[in-house]
Write a structure and sequence with these properties.
It is built from 25 helices and 20 strands. It has 623 residues and is an alpha+beta fold. Helix 1 packs across helix 2, helix 14 packs antiparallel against helix 15 and helix 22 packs antiparallel against helix 24.
Length: 623
């Protein structure tokens, strides 16, 4: 296969219901599909026409409307359209129009129908996912977690296990798990019988935390005779077992042999429709009042995701999908009220929403890049009205006005492309203290709506300059050193008060002194390497791949970021459950002694990498 086809195959493998298909099937799909591109405001499918392809959205967004003009839904990357008409013989019953420039992977009808026929899970996904039935299912799930898992079997969710012998050392197994990107390993005897299980948590708790040698046998740290499931068990059985025994990985055994493993993350992803359908409801909202009501589900959803042991990365993506759906719907409602835009524009978001790392409701950070065809007298009122409508709507939905006025309502952040280009040129080539403040905001940008090419063209120029401007890199490194982990003398924690709540207890600021230092370092190394990703996890992956930092250092930083993020999220979930407004200030007494120890270890990792960064960029010159 060519490189392009391999990339397509890897993307297909991430999209339901293709996630569990064997490589040979994915290879066939990758080689048999066509790539189609449609400009914004193009009717891709029209009612009554013939359609010969199932379309997977690779990038962009579409709007689906019924024959009476009623909105059916808005879909984006990873969603499917056209499959219903293919299944029915080709006649299109709903109109599909692009909301922005959109790229499709188009699977010809014969190939699509063939792999539907050969794979029951795929067939069920496309033929049984009726809107009404799923709407009822999600309402039931909201009232009873795990109900959607009642009809799924473990065999549908399990993954192939990583097997290791009893004579392996901890080091050897760690290498195997890293190469296989596995979170667990099954320890088996010579005859294949299950002896024990080891997870990535065991490495942290039983090796790192206890200071054990990595050259001792894996049997010293494995959990012997673990609880198991059978392939025919219901997925809900696994959910209950994990909840009751506080475990995250369960081996699947058939006839005395290990045939698979199922994790809490697998189960949660299989019932991720809670987020999906909230986003669907948001996309169909008729007014701001409806969006405000729907946004009230966000804190409860955060609690659910945390309690179900989702990773911080996945929680960030899930919660951000809600905020971005609200923003996009507000923009669509604004265009309904004020008419279509007179010139192309990109509505951009910054900060945690741009990085897809939101937790609970947060401040809004956004702006508009306008086409250079902009003329204030002709177009100014239109974009001011749209910006105000969106900003007021976000505030009503819980995304409060930015205290620093980093919003599209501020004339400074609603400008033509050439003005934005001038901003970045000045910030990069003539770095000043104010530029450092903006670097932590506007170097994390994503287009949510409109003409994405305006931002893409801007970011291409940004990366070419940041890679060359060593003075800018040094200033950014110095700025990153202003956020140090909350460790004082003798490794005690530095406690602070929540400025927004004077009556709150002191705690560790796990945003400014916990996750922000990692975000700042990832941003610096990505910009210095000319690397395009915005999400911190994706930046760390790219940094490792580009060898900007050694893989081991990136792994350390990734682990520290995950642990700090999860402590922060668990704290916020506990506050929400107690009816309090979530914050980032975690009192040490809220944590167990082991959690405090692990947190100190995580802070040490971050602090050590900051010191290395400071030495490399000689940041003492800028203090």
């Amino acid at each position: 296969m060519e490189i392009e086809q391999l990339e397509i195959r890897d993307y297909l493998a991430q999209c339901p219901p293709l996630t569990e298909l064997p490589d040979e099937v994915l290879n066939e799909l990758a080689m048999g599909l066509e790539i189609q591109y449609a400009r914004r405001d193009t009717n891709v499918l029209t009612i009554g026409a013939h359609n010969g392809h199932a379309l997977l959205i690779r990038s962009g967004a579409v709007e689906v409307t019924l024959e009476n003009g009623e909105l059916y839904g808005q879909l984006s990357e990873g969603d499917w359209v056209g499959h219903r008409s293919v299944i029915r013989g080709g006649t299109v019953s709903m109109t599909v129009r692009t909301l922005e420039d959109t790229l499709f992977y188009a699977i010809p009808a014969p190939l699509f129908l063939k792999f539907m026929e050969n794979h029951e899970r795929v067939r069920r996904y496309f033929t049984e996912r009726k809107p009404e039935r799923l709407r009822n299912a999600i309402e039931e799930i909201r009232g009873s977690e795990g109900l959607a898992l009642a009809t799924q079997r473990i065999s549908e969710l399990m993954k192939l296990p990583l097997l290791a012998g009893r004579n392996h050392t901890i080091r050897e197994l760690a290498v195997q798990m890293n190469e296989a990107n596995a979170q667990s390993a099954m320890i088996v005897s010579d005859d294949g019988a299950l002896n024990g299980i080891i997870t990535d948590v065991d490495f942290r708790k039983r090796v790192v935390a206890e200071g054990r040698s990595v050259d001792i046998p894996v049997t010293d740290i494995m959990t012997p005779d673990p609880l198991t499931l059978k392939p025919g068990n219901q997925a809900s059985d696994a959910l209950l077992l994990m909840a009751r025994r506080n475990i995250r990985h369960v081996p699947v055994v058939d006839n005395g042999q290990v045939v698979g493993v199922v994790s809490a993350t697998d189960l949660l992803r299989s019932q991720s429709q809670s987020t999906i359908y909230l986003v669907g409801d948001i996309s169909a909202a008729k007014d701001v009042a409806r969006l405000e009501a729907l946004s009230k589900s966000l804190p409860k959803m955060l609690v659910t995701l945390v309690n179900q042991s989702m990773t911080a990365r996945d929680i960030g993506h899930a919660i951000t999908s809600i905020g971005q759906a609200i923003t996009r719907r507000l923009l669509a409602l604004a265009e309904q009220q004020f008419g279509p835009p007179p010139i192309p524009y990109a509505f951009i978001v910054a900060g945690s929403m741009a990085r897809r790392e939101q937790t609970a409701h947060s401040d809004q950070d956004n702006g508009m890049i306008l086409s250079d065809d902009y003329h204030e007298a002709e177009h100014g009122d239109y974009f001011r009205n749209v910006a105000k409508f969106v900003s007021d709507g976000l505030n009503a939905a819980g995304y409060v006005y930015c205290p620093g006025d980093i919003m599209a309502t501020n004339d400074q952040w609603r400008q033509p492309w050439s003005v934005w280009n001038g901003y970045f040129t000045q910030w990069i080539e003539s770095p000043q203290p104010k530029a450092l403040m903006y670097s932590s905001i506007f170097f994390d940008l994503r287009c949510l709506y409109g003409d994405a090419s305006l931002l893409e063209r801007l970011q291409t120029g940004i990366l070419s300059r940041t890679r060359e401007q060593t003075l800018f890199q040094a200033f950014m490194a110095g700025n990153a050193m202003s956020h140090r982990p909350p460790l004082g003398f003798f490794r005690g924690f530095v406690l602070e008060k929540d400025r927004k709540n004077a009556s709150a207890d002191e705690g560790m600021d796990l945003k400014k002194r916990g996750v922000v230092p990692v975000i700042d370092m990832a941003r610096l190394y990505a910009l210095a390497g000319g690397l395009a990703p915005i999400n911190t996890w994706e930046r760390l992956d790219a940094i490792a791949e580009a060898k900007v930092l050694t893989p081991s250092r990136v792994d350390d930083l990734r682990d520290a970021f995950e642990f700090i993020s999860m402590v922060r999220l668990q704290h916020q979930a506990q506050q929400i459950e107690k009816g309090r407004a979530p914050n980032n200030y975690v009192p040490p007494e809220e944590l167990s002694s082991l959690e405090r120890r692990h947190l100190k270890d995580a802070f040490d990792v971050v602090s050590s990498l900051q010191d290395s960064m400071a030495s490399h960029y000689q940041t003492d010159r800028f203090r």
